[in-house]
């Protein structure tokens, strides 16, 4: 072996190492952003880093995390759901009215709404429709239904839901346990089961899956139904915390959920998503939006801008890392 | 007969037919009362959708994934900027309009800067931009109570023989947009990029420049729309542009423009905008509640897309 060949081999190994490091850095990015936000909060207000502080700051993190996971499923199939926010609001209105007063009717309606999501998936696949337009139209449908069910803010969450969301486990605040649970369950379901691989594959290379004999109609239906399911869970969790509902309660969740998925390392095309990342992204947004700004004495006007800025900063960091990956 | 057949083959004819059908249904309901006034009102309101719709059309024509989600925030900010600069003063109308246009162009340019610098899908870029614009607007336009100058408010409401002047000007503008799309290098480049971005690049189209111009154009039209809306509704408002997210995308798709890009249709934007406005008028005339109105609007949009569908997905 000549000296030049050895040198080449060494160079190859070092670039491989650099690429592996960049990939690792990239997958750690969601966790790093969350750690950064936590550090900032700890530095600005050390008392916030406590059992009580976390319970308070992460109050709304569970519904946001669930809505983000819901959005992640459609994104895994290369689609986008612009109706998840109003859907969460609709579920909230059903939860605060029918689910409390007539539980059976409430359960049927909520299950039916998951069915509607499944049908939407089928429709989008069979007619080859742009999901962004269909779901934008559906956002009006859900909002209209929510207003019909609950014209004025009000209603009341079922007692079992209230006591569930008010659960105070020892040592670790409930939102953190719930977020962990959601992340782990969805991670195993989507990343570690064989059908999960097929679901992600439908976004990665649909043509290849089709040739391998898998039904793309079925994968789309399953992905949309999962979105509906997690949307329902998000709406119920939200009402369990706020105790009463309002038809517009979930409107902000559409954009928040998309931002959470992207923050968590999800890609818009190619079925590249990460459930753990998505939950971390949702927690980052939940923490950065209000507690961090409050501690920094920034007026609430800039809450939405903070979300946008975090998104841009993380994406910029990702570009820098990806450049090294090549 | 041959001319009728070519007419039916045009994709935009359906949106006008839909608008006509909705109008007839409403007039039949009222027993012929207020049919003319309804068209006047529909024309005045459709103008705002058409202006942003044309901007959105150029963006969507760039190809899969291209969409401008920052329009509502952009419209809101521009409306506040226009009102503040005009400050109720007739002599400042032109300056205020220019300020709104500049504000919109800056938003559009910032959108493209994000797309280009971060190499992210336009949906995410315009979404993050809209978060920031929205906050700027909330902070800048807080408690803004400035009325538009009387001259400007009169201009946006000015009618000649029942035809809104703004609608006439917008028709002229859309004719210009159609010429730009079909007969000018810029428009042909947009179509070429939408059909095959790589082929367009190899054919010597300056892809980056054309995309930059298109996002800036969309932003500028959003800015113009914001100023006009503030004049028409006599005041700026953070939420003034909210309904134009759905409306701008819906009129493009219903009007026969391909969501897969590379095929645009200007007359269809007018037809679809009239259809949407008349649809709302019809539901209002029927006296349905806000919930039913939203529900039916959503269902009809999903229905129209389903019937018109069969195209490649937007993303």
UniProtKB/TrEMBL annotation, chain B:
GO MF terms, alphabetically ordered: transmembrane transporter activity
Subcellular location: Cell membrane
Name recorded for this polypeptide: ABC transporter permease
Organism: Mesorhizobium waimense
Topological category with respect to the lipid bilayer: Multi-pass membrane protein
Major place of residence: membrane
PANTHER family given in the database record: ABC TRANSPORTER PERMEASE PROTEIN YPHD-RELATED-RELATED
InterPro entries noted in UniProt: ABC_transp_permease
